[in-house]
Design goal:
Structural class: alpha/beta
Largest sheet: 5 strands, mixed, barrel
Helix content: 25-40%
C-alpha cells in the first residue's frame, strides 16, 4: 500500500532538503527522496553541492591555501618552516570528512523536523487518488503518494561532445576533487567558477595549470574592472589562462590527454596534459524522473518549465534549483525551496533574482550582486560609481592581503544601490551587506552612514559608498 504524504520532494540537494524541512515546519507530512550514496552504500544527502561541489571544493581550497602559505608566506610573519611536504591522502581525507559531516547533518535535520527520508531514485508513476504516485527505486522499492510534489533533481556536468568523463584522465568536478596524485601538468577547459577554483587548488599543490576559455573576455559575467584585476592576480600566481580559444580534437592515451585548439589569434596550438578538467557548464538532471510518463513539460534546453512561482504545467507539481531556469547556485535553490513550501501553505514566498549574489572562491575571492558597469551602460542607465582599494584598508594590510577593491554602482539621481562588486579578502562574506541594502532598495549614502567596526575589511565597503559621493576618508 502506498504511503501518503502532503509533500514529496524528489532530490535532497540544497533546494530539496531545504524545501522538505520548511514544508515540515509549516505542518505538512513530508517525504524526501535521494539516491546519492557513500562508497559503503550509506545515504549521502546534500546533492552536488555537499558531495562534489561547494563544500568539498571549499575544503580543498582551504587546505591548499594553508600549504601555499606555509611554503611561501609564513616567513613574512617571522615563522620559519623547513621541509614542508604534502600528504595528499590526508588532505583528500579531510575533505571527505567535511562532506560526511554535512551528509550526517542533513539526515539529523530530517529526523529533527520529522521528514521521512527514502534512499533511492524517485520517479513519477502517474496520477493517483490524493495526488501523484511516486515510485522509489533503491535497495528496497517503495510507492508514495504526494498531494504536492517538489522536483529538485539538480544538474549534471556538461561533457565535451565526443569526450565522455572517465574521471581518471578526463575529469568533471567530481573526479577533479579526488585526483590521487598531484599531476605535473593539468589542463582546464572552461574559466568559470569550477575551473578557476579547482585549477587554483591543484596549482597551489604543485601542478602546472593551463586554463582554456572559449569566450573572448575573461569572466565576462563579472564587472569588467573586477575581471581584469582577477586575471592579473591569477596569472601572477601561475595560472596560464588563454581566452578566445576554439577546442579541436582531444585524444587520450595511456599517459596523457592531447588537446588541439585554435588560439585567439587564429593559430593552431597543441597542449599535452596528465589530467584534463572539463568545466563548460551543467545540464539539468531529468533522466529517470518519469517526466514523459505524466507529461511534465520541459523547455527547449531540457529544463523543467516553470512559471515565476516555480509551478510546472501539472497541478500541484513544483520544481526548484538547477533543474529550472535561473542561476545554477545552491543559495538560489534554497530560496526557491523555502518559497515553494510557503506557497503550498498559502503564504507569499519571496525570491528576488536581482539580489542573488555570486561568488568565486579563488584567492583573491570575487563576489558581486546586481548590475555591473557594462550592463548599466548597455541599458543607458545613468549611474555613479565609487571604489576603494584594499591596499588602503588597515585590516587588509595586517592580514597581508591587499589585492583588489570594492566597487559600488548607484543610480545617478536616487542614489539607490544598483550593483556591488568585490575582489579581495573575504569578498564572499562582505557581499552580504550589499545584498541586504539592495533588498531594501537602500542608497549608497545608507551604507556610508552605517558605523562599521574598525579595523575590519567591511570598512572598504563603507569607503566605496563614500566614494560614490567623492568623499572617501582613507584614500
Amino acid at each position: 500500500m502506498a504511503k501518503q504524504f502532503d509533500v514529496v520532494v524528489i532530490g535532497a540537494g540544497p533546494g530539496g532538503y531545504i524545501a522538505a524541512i520548511r514544508a515540515a515546519q509549516l505542518g505538512f507530512s513530508v517525504a524526501c527522496i535521494d539516491a546519492a550514496a557513500t562508497a559503503d552504500g550509506k545515504p549521502a544527502p546534500g546533492g552536488t553541492c555537499t558531495n562534489v561541489g561547494c563544500i568539498p571544493s571549499k575544503a580543498l581550497l582551504q587546505s591548499s591555501e594553508h600549504y601555499e602559505q606555509a611554503q611561501h608566506h609564513f616567513a613574512e610573519h617571522g615563522i620559519e618552516v623547513k621541509g614542508v611536504s604534502l600528504k595528499l591522502d590526508t588532505l583528500i581525507g579531510r575533505k571527505d570528512s567535511v562532506v560526511k559531516q554535512n551528509n550526517e547533518g542533513i539526515l539529523y535535520l530530517f529526523k529533527k523536523n520529522k521528514v521521512t527520508f527514502f534512499h533511492g531514485t524517485g520517479a513519477f508513476a502517474g496520477q493517483a487518488e490524493g495526488g501523484w504516485a511516486i515510485k522509489v527505486s533503491g535497495k528496497t522499492e517503495d510507492e508514495l503518494v504526494g498531494k504536492h510534489i517538489i522536483v529538485a533533481t539538480g544538474s549534471s556536468p556538461r561533457a565535451l561532445p565526443g569526450l565522455p568523463f572517465d574521471e581518471t584522465q578526463v575529469l568533471s568536478n567530481d573526479g577533479a576533487l579526488r585526483i590521487p596524485a598531484v599531476p605535473k601538468k593539468l589542463g582546464v577547459i572552461g574559466a568559470g567558477v569550477i575551473g578557476l577554483e579547482l585549477g587554483s587548488v591543484w596549482r597551489r599543490l604543485g601542478a602546472e595549470v593551463t586554463v582554456l576559455e572559449a569566450m573572448p573576455d575573461f569572466l565576462a559575467v563579472a564587472d569588467q574592472q573586477v575581471a581584469k584585476e582577477a586575471l592579473k592576480a591569477l596569472t601572477k600566481q601561475g595560472l596560464k589562462i588563454s581566452t578566445g580559444v576554439k577546442i579541436g580534437e582531444v585524444k587520450t592515451t595511456a599517459k596523457a590527454v592531447n588537446i588541439s585548439y585554435t588560439d585567439a589569434a587564429g593559430s593552431e596550438q597543441k597542449l599535452a596534459v596528465d589530467k584534463l578538467i572539463v568545466s563548460i557548464g551543467r545540464v539539468p538532471h531529468v533522466e529517470g524522473l518519469g517526466a514523459e510518463t505524466v507529461g511534465l513539460k520541459l523547455d527547449e534546453r531540457g529544463f523543467i518549465a516553470v512559471d515565476g512561482d516555480c509551478k510546472t504545467n501539472l497541478p500541484n507539481v513544483w520544481a526548484v534549483g538547477d533543474v529550472v531556469r535561473g542561476p545554477m547556485l545552491a543559495h538560489k535553490a534554497e530560496e526557491e525551496g523555502v518559497a515553494v513550501a510557503e506557497r503550498i501553505a498559502g503564504q507569499h514566498g519571496h525570491v528576488n533574482f536581482d539580489t542573488i549574489p555570486s561568488v568565486i572562491y579563488t584567492s583573491p575571492e570575487i563576489s558581486w550582486v546586481g548590475k555591473n558597469e557594462q550592463q548599466l551602460k548597455a541599458e543607458g542607465r545613468e549611474y555613479k560609481a565609487g571604489s576603494f582599494p584594499f591596499l588602503a584598508n588597515g585590516r587588509a594590510r595586517a592580514l597581508g592581503d591587499t589585492t583588489g577593491f570594492v566597487k559600488i554602482l548607484a543610480d545617478a539621481k536616487t542614489d539607490e544601490v544598483l550593483g556591488v562588486h568585490i575582489i579581495g579578502p573575504q569578498a564572499s562574506e562582505l557581499i552580504a551587506e550589499a545584498v541586504t541594502i539592495m533588498e531594501f532598495r537602500g542608497a549608497a549614502e545608507d551604507i556610508a552612514r552605517i558605523c562599521h567596526a574598525h579595523p575590519t575589511l567591511s570598512e572598504a565597503v563603507k569607503e566605496a559608498a563614500l566614494a560614490v559621493d567623492k568623499r572617501t576618508l582613507n584614500f
